[in-house]
């Protein structure tokens, strides 16, 4: 028997531990070289772990385990090959007869094993029961309707027997009238990392927030007038985010303190602008940067943001794509937020918060008009950015957005 040990590889300089979030192959499955066998969740991204050899997979770690770099994850028995139960036996009449039962046994584990029938699948989905927790009694281990009904009955017994059983139920639990259900789940590594960084930003920076509001009338008219031509030429819509990012990049180049960061007793200045875009994903908030925004066109910024958002929501962002960033923009307006105080994305020194666009009465040349208004919030580290600098920055961004021709003409 030849065994290959699968250990957590070195992922990045700052990553010392990962969480085994999901097994992609079952214990005992045959796996091929370079075939993904599980997923690791690091501080920054979710990564697939490929098999280092072909053979029978033997699980060592469990889903949810926190593993240090170099920790043993699984073993692969390379002496087992697909279909070798018969092929490895000497070709004599007696040997073939003796090998036949083993061949039949190997065939009983196939796609049907552990998979529910349509009726069983419907029942399990409605009751939020994981198929991996149900034993199939049908042909080749398929989960039948009767298996699903039994799993529902067992779940009902587990959730009503004792309070301790209630707390240990995995997955969402439906509560009927009068029941008080408690569910305990381990925080994901990404959620734990987000929590630690938010607390660090609050504790380690002298954070303040300044506010202003921007009238988006001119910006909306520009988008309405040129949107069709923009889409026809570039194949993507002109959104608010590229316009806000470009305005911020221009002002950041004019006011380098806001684009800088503190490193001990030093201040690091940047002659470029990498804007981190806050993206909400099922696993938490990520902030991958768009590089060199100051030199990109609006369509290039839109494509970059779309690419990062698609990868983030699919869990496909690489560690390299998560690195960097000199300033952050977050848009709580997409969720309906009217005003907020965003937290600095360390080690950066400032973050701009966009909010919902609301039509409000405002005074224009002595008259009251209804205008599309948005509140802007700039949270900043007062250790490096003075109050006057933060206010001037936000006013300058407001001016560019309210008169977008000055932005387009780089005035």
Describe the structure.
By secondary structure, the protein is an alpha+beta fold. Helices cover 34% and strands 24% of the residues. The protein has helices at residues 84-87, 93-107, 118-126, 145-161, 163-167, 189-204, 217-234, 240-254, 298-313, 319-322, 387-402, 404-408; strands at residues 3-7, 17-23, 30-31, 36-41, 46-50, 55-59, 66-68, 72-77, 207-215, 261-263, 266-268, 275-277, 279-281, 284-286, 289-290, 327-331, 350-354, 358-364, 367-381. Strands 9, 12, 15, 16, 17, 18 and 19 form a 7-stranded mixed β-sheet that branches. Helix 3 packs parallel to helix 4 (145-161), helix 8 crosses helix 9 and helix 8 (240-254) packs across helix 11 (387-402). The protein is elongated, with a radius of gyration of 28 Å. The termini are far apart. 27% of the residues are buried.
- How many helices? The count is 12
Overall number of strands = 19
- Please identify the oligomeric state: single chain
How much helical structure, as a percent, in the residues? Answer: 25-40%
What is the domain tally? 3
The profile of the biggest β sheet is: 7 strands, mixed
Q: CATH homologous superfamily of the largest domain - what is it?
A: Chloramphenicol acetyltransferase-like domain
What gap, in angstroms, lies between the N and C termini? Answer: 73 Å
CATH topology of the largest domain: Chloramphenicol Acetyltransferase
**Helices and strands: which structural class?**
alpha+beta
């Amino acid at each position: 028997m030849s065994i290959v040990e699968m250990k957590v590889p070195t992922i990045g300089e700052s990553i010392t531990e990962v969480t085994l979030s999901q097994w992609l192959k079952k214990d005992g499955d045959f796996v091929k070289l370079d075939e993904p066998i599980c997923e690791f969740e690091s501080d920054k991204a979710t990564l697939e772990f490929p098999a280092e050899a072909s053979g029978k997979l033997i699980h060592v770690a469990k889903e949810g385990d926190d593993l240090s770099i170099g920790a043993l994850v699984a073993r692969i028995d390379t002496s087992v090959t697909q279909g070798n139960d018969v092929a490895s036996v000497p070709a004599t009449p007696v040997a073939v007869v003796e090998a036949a039962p083993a061949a039949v046994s190997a065939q009983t584990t196939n796609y049907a094993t552990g998979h529910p029938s349509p009726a069983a699948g419907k029942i399990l989905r409605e009751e939020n029961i994981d198929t991996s927790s149900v034993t199939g009694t049908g042909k080749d281990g398929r989960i039948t309707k009767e298996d699903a009904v039994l799993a529902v009955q067992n779940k009902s017994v587990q959730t009503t027997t004792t309070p301790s059983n209630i707390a240990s139920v995995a997955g969402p639990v439906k509560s009927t009238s009068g029941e008080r259900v408690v569910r305990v789940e381990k925080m994901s590594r990404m959620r734990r990392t987000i929590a630690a960084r938010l607390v660090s930003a609050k504790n380690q920076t002298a954070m303040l927030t300044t506010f202003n509001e921007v009238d988006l009338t001119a910006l909306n008219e520009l988008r309405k007038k040129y949107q069709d031509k923009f889409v026809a030429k570039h194949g993507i819509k002109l959104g608010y985010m590229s316009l806000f990012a470009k305005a911020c990049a221009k002002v950041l180049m004019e006011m380098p303190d806001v684009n800088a960061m503190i490193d001990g007793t030093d201040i690091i200045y940047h002659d470029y602008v990498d804007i981190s875009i806050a993206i909400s994903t099922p696993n938490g908030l990520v902030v991958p940067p768009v590089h060199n925004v100051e030199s990109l066109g609006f369509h290039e910024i839109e494509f970059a943001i779309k690419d990062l958002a698609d990868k983030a929501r699919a869990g496909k962002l690489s560690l390299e794509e998560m690195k960097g960033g000199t300033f952050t923009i977050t848009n709580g307006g997409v969720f309906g937020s009217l005003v907020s105080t965003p937290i600095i994305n360390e080690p950066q020194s400032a973050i701009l918060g966009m909010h919902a666009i609301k039509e409000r009465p405002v005074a224009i040349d002595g008259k009251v008009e209804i205008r599309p208004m948005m509140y802007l919030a700039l949270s900043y580290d007062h250790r490096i950015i003075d109050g006057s600098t933060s206010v001037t920055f936000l006013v300058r961004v407001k001016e560019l957005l309210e008169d977008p021709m000055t932005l387009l003409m780089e005035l």
